[in-house]
Write a structure and sequence with these properties.
Blueprint: H1 2-17, E1 33-41, E2 51-60, E3 70-75, E4 81-82, E5 86-91, E6 97-104, E7 110-117, E8 123-125
Antiparallel strand pairs: 1-2, 1-8, 2-5, 3-4, 3-6, 6-7
Length: about 130
């Protein structure tokens, strides 16, 4: 029992000495940030007809490579989901469409952004 406690204490001290969690580090600053969501309609795009819309999400994270971020989201009234930095959805081009996207890092931090796609109009939101 005494050996187990000494071993546990030694491992705890080793973790601290070798760069274990540092209470002075603000982990809230390690969250992703969505800097822009942009969209472009496939041509030709005509009101009242189904058309593809390519959505690009630009995000950064101070401690995670862009390739390690994950994306999830959708656009109401359109088929297909946002599952990557660049995704394509198909919309019937009958009304403006509300969308939202969430970007997550491997540590469980995330950021979300809402946007609205107009009929056959390319655009972006910051």
């Amino acid at each position: 029992m005494k050996t187990t406690r000494i071993l546990a204490l030694g491992l705890c001290l080793l973790a601290f000495a070798c760069g274990g969690d540092d209470d002075d580090h603000d982990h809230s600053m390690d969250s992703p940030t969505i800097t822009e969501v942009s969209w472009a309609h496939a041509q030709p795009c005509n009101a009242g007809t189904r058309s593809d819309v390519t959505i690009t999400v630009t995000a950064t994270d101070p401690d995670t490579a862009a390739s390690a971020l994950t994306y999830s989201g959708s656009v109401e009234g359109c088929t297909g989901d946002i599952t990557a930095q660049t995704s394509t959805v198909s919309c019937p081009q009958a009304a403006p469409y509300n969308g939202s996207v969430t970007v997550s890092d491997p540590d469980g931090h995330n950021a979300s952004k809402s946007f609205q796609i107009a009929v056959c109009a390319d655009g972006q939101t910051n």
